[in-house]
Design goal:
Blueprint: H1 2-38, H2 48-67, H3 73-100, H4 105-127, H5 140-146, E1 161-163, E2 168-170
Antiparallel strand pairs: 1-2
Helix pairs in contact: 1-2, 2-3
Keywords: Membrane, Transmembrane, Transmembrane helix
């Protein structure tokens, strides 16, 4: 009779272990979803891999505690609750640290560019160097627009050489002229 009771207790403990493992699986599955939701912002995205690694370690420790028969049921429950509490505390601190130390480099770069543009504009208005303040009496902008026609040939321009039947051209030498107005910045 005691052998039969021992077998029933063993079966009962195995069923309890399996039910607890199923419960642990669902708890950790929902924790994965919660971590994903909390770490889906730009501020906390960098913490996500560490939280998943810590969650896996916690899961394996909890399964090991439940599998081995070193502790009785009350001690197992106490250790598992302590382990989960430590994980939640560490995860909360990591998320809080990530939120507090986050720097949005896109916004910082934008502000830095705006500040540089303001400084450059201030320097240009301070120096007042423009195209019209030059010492020559020729109005270069109107001369470029009116006196140069499109039919004028550039003496430095070299026609490309034609090669073979396909008329493939090769650029031997070419000069690039940039006639746009450029203020001189000192």
């Amino acid at each position: 009779m005691f052998v039969a009771l021992e077998k029933l207790f063993t079966l009962h403990n195995a069923m309890l272990l399996e039910s607890r493992l199923i419960k642990v699986f669902f708890v950790y599955f929902t924790t994965i979803f919660i971590i994903y939701m909390f770490s889906s912002t730009k501020q906390t995205y960098t913490v996500r891999p560490w939280l998943y690694i810590e969650l896996c370690v916690t899961f394996f420790i909890e399964v090991a505690i439940l599998r081995f028969e070193m502790f009785n049921m009350e001690e197992k429950t106490w250790i598992v609750n302590l382990l989960r509490t430590v994980f939640l505390l560490v995860a909360s601190l990591q998320l809080l640290y990530a939120v507090c130390t986050y720097r949005d480099y896109d916004v910082l770069n934008h502000h830095m560019l705006l500040m540089l543009m303001e400084r450059i504009n201030g320097m240009q208005t301070q120096n007042k160097l423009s195209w019209d303040d030059s010492d020559s009496e020729v109005d270069w902008t109107s001369w470029i627009d009116t006196e140069l026609s499109e039919d004028v040939e550039d003496p430095d321009f070299v026609l490309p050489e034609e090669v073979g039947e396909n008329s493939i051209t090769t650029a031997s030498t070419s000069r690039r002229y940039n006639l746009r107005h450029r203020p001189i910045v000192k």
